[in-house]
Amino acid sequence: xxxxxxxxxxxxxxxxxxxxxxxxxxxxxxxxxxxxxxxxxxxxxxxxxxxxxxxxxxxxxxxxxxxxxxxxxxxxxxxxxxxxxxxxxxxxxxxx
Length: 96
Prior knowledge:
CATH superfamily: Nucleoside Triphosphate Pyrophosphohydrolase
Radius of gyration: 15 Å
């Protein structure tokens, strides 16, 4: 899983990193508009990683890739769970 995460990071952003540790495993479950049927279920395995090298370049599935300061994240309209995981990862990186 860790090797796959690092490979995806490299392929999608051209950034190299080292895994610090597992942050969380999150179920992302989405319903249809009526709210009566589950239409998507993702299991997200979130790792804290320390940047090693590379400048972010968007891969073929993104319009943009760049680093953000943690103070900028609230302006990005991110899923609350994404913000929670980022905060947990940042705390983990500060400890290690």
